[in-house]
Amino acid sequence: MDARIYQPAKPATQSGRFKTKFWIVEHEPKCRQEPDRLIGWIGSDDTEKQVILRFPTKEAAIAYCEKHGLSYSIAEPHQRIVRPKSYADNFIRRV
């Protein structure tokens, strides 16, 4: 598997959902990260890990992977469950 296609989740610290509209293609790491002997920073020789591609639809992301000969896996997003409730429900006393 060369790439992973997914739709990111909403950040827990923000209420907006703008960044969840796009589909992302990320390359899987080809080598493991190791600490640098001189500085101690963790890094690797894999430059594809730094590239994140955004697409408006899942089909466009799949078409990109197929065009470039990448094998891919798709992670489907969880569906948001909206439970309608009224303001008065906040004051119902439950025993």
UniProtKB/TrEMBL annotation:
Sorted UniProt keywords: Electron transport, Membrane, Respiratory chain, Transit peptide, Transport
Subcellular location: Membrane
InterPro entries found in the cross-reference section: NADH_UbQ_FeS_4_mit-like, NDUFS4-like_sf
Highest taxon of the lineage: Bacteria
Name of the protein in its database record: ETC complex I subunit
